[in-house]
Amino acid sequence: MLQIAILGMGAHAVVTLIATAFVVAVIAAYLIRVALILWHVIDRLVTILGAVNAVAQESQPMGAVIDDINKNLASGREAFESAVERLERRKPAPESEPTTGVSPTWSHWRGE
After folding, report:
1. What is the value of pTM for the model shown?
2. What is the number of structural domains in the chain?
3. Which residues of 50-62 are buried (b: 16+ CB within 10 A; e: fewer)?
4. How far apart are CA 59 and CA 16, in angstroms?
5. Is 104 inside a domain boundary?
6. What is the domain range of residue 48?
7. For residue 44, is it within any domain?
8. 98 located within any domain
């Protein structure tokens, strides 16, 4: 029988050490690959966030224009609301009495 011994260990101990070293190497390779993918993602996110920041800085002058538009819309709304209030306060016009010979149902047009 073949005896594999390292520092006085038996064959099963040596095989266990080799299997453990292999598993650690595979896990390390996997973690290195994940780290490289995350590094790539971070680079892309930095690029995207830089572009978003540039767009935000370019759109800041639009704030004053939007404020002016909102003021115009608010004054228009106030004008409409005041017009509605004036219309609601008006007294309804008196109803006129139908003249003789005119049917309120328009049946006179059909000859009835």
Report:
1. 0.42
2. 1
3. eeeeeeeeeeeee
4. 64
5. no
6. 8-66
7. yes
8. no
Amino acid at position 7, single letter: L
- What is the SS3 string spanning the chain? CCCCCCCCCCHHHHHHHHHHHHHHHHHHHHHHHHHHHHHHHHHHHHHHHHHHHHHHHHHCCHHHHHHHHHHHHHHHHHHHHHHHHHHHHCCCCCCCCCCCCCCCCCHHHHCC
Question: Is residue 106 assigned to a domain?
Answer: no
What is the biggest distance separating any 2 CA atoms in the chain, rounded to whole angstroms?
Answer: 132
The pLDDT tens digits for 56-99 are: 888 777 778 888 888 989 999 999 999 888 888 886 666 665 55
Which range of 4-8, 13-17, 27-31, 96-100 scores highest in mean pLDDT? It is 27-31
